[in-house]
Each structure stands twice: as C-alpha cells, then as structure tokens.
Specification:
The protein has 333 residues and is α+β, with helices and mostly antiparallel strands. It is built from 4 helices and 20 strands. The radius of gyration is 29 Å and the shape is globular. Keywords: Signal.
Length: 333
C-alpha cells in the first residue's frame, strides 16, 4: 500500500514537470511561420501616354514598316553631342518591342569613341559592360557617358580583330573573314570609320592597322556604302548594332531588346538594317546579339554606391546582361 502511494506521488510529480516543460517551450507569438510564404505581387507595366514622336522615330515610321503602333518615345540628352532615345512600339506582327538609340555627334570636339577591354587590361577575359566602363574610365581621357557590348565571345576572347589603346591584341587571319568581317575603327587622330567589306567582290577602302587607336569587330553586315546587305538568317533576338552616316560625323548605337514576349521579342538582321538605314546610317553592322546586347549609361550620383556608376538602360534577359570580351565606349573629354 505504501509503495502504491509512492508510485502515485511520483506520477503526479512527473506530470507536473512535464506540464512545466510544455509551457516553457511554448512557441513565441512573433515566431515566423515558414510554411506561409508571402504572396508574389506582380504590378502590370504601365507605359505613360506620349503622343510626341521624335525625329529619329519619325524617320523610322516614314521610311519603314517596322513600327505598326507607336507607344513611347523618350529622348534624353546625356552630354553635349550625345542623345539617347528609348522607343517602345508594336511591330508589324503585333509583338511588343523596345529599342535604345544612342546618337553621337562626332563633329563635337569634346566627343570621342574608344574600344573598351575587360578590367582595362590587355588579357583576354570577359566582364559585364557596367563593370567594364568603370574599369576603363581612368585612362579614357574623359568621362565614359555610355557604352555598348562589342564582339562575339570565343573562348573568352573577341572573335574578330581587336585593337585596344593602340595595341593590336588580335588579328583575324582566316582567309574567309579577314577582309569581310565588319569593324569599327578609330584612328589615332580620333576619326571614326567602318572597315572591311561584306564580300570578296566588294570594293574596300584601304586602311592601315598601325594608324588605329581602337578597333572592335562585329559579326554581321547590315549596310555597306548606303546599300542594304540582305541576310538569310531569320532569327528573332536581341541585337546590338553600330551605324555611321556617309559624312562620318554621326554614329548610331542601337540596342534592341529580345527574349521577352511581354516586353520585347527581338528583331531580325534585315529589319534592324532597315532601322539603321532610316535613321541615317550608310555603313552598319551587328556587333553581337542575344543576352550580350547591353547599353549602359553613366550615373553621376548613384544612390546605392554614393558615387559614379553605369546603369543598364535596356532590358536584357539577365539584369546585368551577358559578359563581353570587349566594348565600345562613348567619351566626353
């Protein structure tokens, strides 16, 4: 009987301590519930009404069938001699499109164009355009106001010829492409030209690589001496193009976004050639396309960094855009 009372007392004591432990381990009121995730809220994009059509967009609309429905034309003066126009429109297939056009007045003595290299170095590697602009500014001779991606990357190197700060880093020696791969050349006196020719049978203006301070190659001709260079490629994608007018005093850098149906599907080479011709280019070519198509713009007082930075102004599939083996910088001295 005594043992039974002892066991009952022991059970009561154990139950009491068990209750205390449960109370002590009670979950806090502010403890997060991991199973209940915050809902993802997506805000639909709103394009502000804009009925004013700028000069470049008017040229495209008057001379081509590229723009079916005009949506937005926003032009910003980046510096004396440089303007960037953002165009939103619906193409002839009823697809959303977005395009950036950088217009550079080469007649301005304060404006210059230069090749950019990853980490401002002479080694072959890749880097995002925003970082490339940052590293190259120190020796640019001024401020890099904007920049675009350069040549197609092959094993971390540019595919075509490349001259950086008057140093010849690579020469295209393949017979089939040595004279037919387009490039943007900048002579040591600062003058800009588009070099090579679209076919072996075409005539070509002579040049000397030793006279060049910069050379950045491209991959596909769009225009040559005022005439279109037709392409059999029908791929629709993001593309970056450079165009120079006949007087060689205006340079156009165009980046068309692609890969996102709701924002911008992309563009073919032939349609991009029409755009380049309509805005005034005589010679034009594509540098690279797809994820690598990037345009960056200088931000003087970045709220995040507290200093100078370069913002991606187009909308590549990846926020920073694909890395490039070289680029073209637009500098104000």
């Amino acid at each position: 009987m005594k043992n039974k009372k002892y066991r009952n007392k022991l059970c009561i004591t154990a139950s009491f301590y068990l209750l205390l432990s449960l109370v002590a381990c009670k979950q806090r009121d502010d403890y997060p519930v991991f199973e209940q995730r915050e809902p993802v809220v997506t805000t639909p994009e709103v394009i502000p009404p804009d009925n004013e059509i700028g000069t470049l967009v008017k040229k495209i609309m008057d001379k081509t069938d590229i723009i079916s429905i005009f949506k937005l034309d926003s032009t910003t003066t980046l510096a004396d001699g440089m303007k960037r126009t953002h165009v939103r429109y619906v193409n002839k297939l009823n697809q959303a499109m977005s395009m950036q056009i950088l217009e550079v007045d080469l007649s301005k003595s304060n404006v210059k164009v230069a090749a950019l290299s990853p980490f401002d170095d002479y080694l072959f590697t890749v880097q995002t355009m925003a970082d490339m602009a940052k590293y190259n500014e120190g020796r640019s001779g001024g401020k890099i106001i904007a920049a675009i991606n350069g040549d197609v990357v092959t094993s971390s190197a540019p595919t075509g010829s490349f001259i950086f700060r008057s140093r010849l880093l690579k020469t295209t020696t393949t017979t089939a492409t040595s004279n037919t791969r387009p490039f943007l050349g900048v002579k040591k006196d600062g003058s800009v030209f588009v070099g090579n020719k679209p076919s072996e049978s075409s005539s070509m203006d002579a040049y000397n690589l030793n006279d060049l301070a910069s050379l950045v190659s491209g991959g596909t001709w769009l225009l040559y001496k005022g005439a279109t260079v037709a392409s059999t490629t029908t791929t629709v994608q993001a593309n970056t193009a450079l165009g120079l007018n006949a007087d060689k005093n205006y340079l156009y850098a165009v980046v068309v976004d692609g890969g996102t149906n709701a924002f911008s599907v992309g563009i073919t080479y032939n349609d991009l050639g029409k755009i380049m011709q309509s805005i005034g280019a005589s010679d034009a070519f594509v540098t690279n396309g797809g994820a690598a198509s990037v345009m960056v713009q200088r931000i003087e007082n970045d709220a995040l960094t507290g200093g100078v930075s370069w913002k991606v102004v187009n909308k590549p599939v990846a926020a920073a855009g694909g890395s490039s083996a070289n680029g073209i910088g637009f500098v104000v001295k």
